Amino acid sequence: MVERVPPGCVVTYGAVADALAEASGRCSARQVGTIMARHGGGVPWHRVVNAAGRVAPSQPAEARRRLLAEGVPMRGEAVDLRRCAWPPS
């Protein structure tokens, strides 16, 4: 699912969890974060943010750099979710 998030957009851990829960019956934002931290290196991990629009805590400078390079709008230190949230289907 994270591979489908287009450049310039982001998705929240919770939105990923909700979409996966529909398919698997259960999932949490915390689980998504753990999976991304352990196995997310091969996907655009920087496009997954928390519900407040904050970037991954493990590599915040790199995530922010990548998002800005893609034109993701920011509000201070957070992503402007109203302008760039991608709805997983």
UniProtKB/TrEMBL annotation:
Keyword DNA damage applies: yes
CDD domains associated with the record: ATase
InterPro entries (alphabetical): ATL_DNA_repair, MethylDNA_cys_MeTrfase_DNA-bd, MethylDNA_cys_MeTrfase_DNAb, WH-like_DNA-bd_sf
Residue ranges annotated for the Methylated-DNA-[protein]-cysteine S-methyltransferase DNA binding domain, each copy included: 2-70
Keyword DNA damage on entry: yes
Record-given protein name: MGMT family protein
Keywords: DNA damage
Pfam families: DNA_binding_1
Organism: Pilimelia columellifera subsp. columellifera
